Amino acid sequence: MLISKTRSSIWARSARARPWPSFWIPGRTTVSGIVLPKTESMAQVRHAAQTNIPIIPIVETAQGVLHLAEIAATPGVQRLAFGSLDYSLDLAMTPDTEGADLVLDHARVQMLLHGRVAGLGQPLYGVFPGIQDTAGLRAAAIRARDMGFGGLLCIHPTQVPVVHEAFLPPLADLEWAREVVRAHRDNGLAAFKLDGKMIDAPVIARARRLLVRYGHLVKITPERLAALEEQFRKRGLYLVMGARFVVVLRQLNGLIAGSAGMPFHRFLAANVVGALAWTAVWGAGPYLAADVFVPFWHWLRG
């Protein structure tokens, strides 16, 4: 059994078919989910589902790809994952060739389609074997993101920050999304022109999805995003000034203020005031507090 731990959850990967271990870990009642390798049938997933925790089946054989529909539809499955290395071995591919990439992409598309039809989370792309090839890993992660995958399996801790960065929406796309959402809110039209291009319902939906996708990385749901936009319209100046003191809001306040249509000169003024207040509190504050802290420290030491 292998354990994968993040800040918020622990997932266990086990190759054991029977019996399933209890997955008890000292300090925690249970793990958050099971990563099920070599998944080839609904029966395997149902067996793992007896633990009553989410499952991520890794599909890495021809048999598994042919049974993707039933695997994805099995209760308890959170999302699918692709084991590209074992799949290449199973089909006797020549690694890192155009032909192999074509066959692998066919399986990846099947995972995207079946996962979407089953209402699962975006699937995981698979692993990138080059531990020290940061550029190659980043390119693979960006390709996975562009294809519609929700993540990439990592085989070494050093790969994690590279993948996280690659899956962030590009800043240019976020700027575009902000302009689309703001223009749609201002004109109220179902279709309009922006920067010489037609904007209609699917494009507006994609723009909002980009904003929500970025917010998801810091636990911002669509409902929270809408609520924040409404708050910015009502109390924008105060929120921008106070955002300096809140970690998540400090990063998002410009994005949300822009999508809420806050005039730039007001945003800039509020940001300057907030920055000055933050500097005063965390700069001058501790400095002045030293006059109180030092005598108190001497008193504690007797």
From TrEMBL:
Gene Ontology process terms (BP): oxaloacetate metabolic process
Source organism, top-level taxon: Bacteria
Keywords: Lyase, Magnesium, Membrane, Metal-binding, Transmembrane, Transmembrane helix
MF term (GO), any: lyase activity
Chain ranges passing through the membrane: 276-300
Keyword Lipid biosynthesis among UniProt keywords: no
UniProt domain VTT: residue ranges: 222-282
Cofactor(s) annotated in UniProt: Mg(2+)
Occurrences of domain HpcH/HpaI aldolase/citrate lyase (ranges): 43-157
Alphabetized PANTHER family for the sequence: CITRATE LYASE SUBUNIT BETA, LYASE BETA SUBUNIT, PUTATIVE (AFU_ORTHOLOGUE AFUA_4G13030)-RELATED
Annotated protein name in UniProt: HpcH/HpaI aldolase/citrate lyase family protein
Origin species: Bordetella holmesii CDC-H585-BH
Taxonomic classification: Bacteria, Pseudomonadati, Pseudomonadota, Betaproteobacteria, Burkholderiales
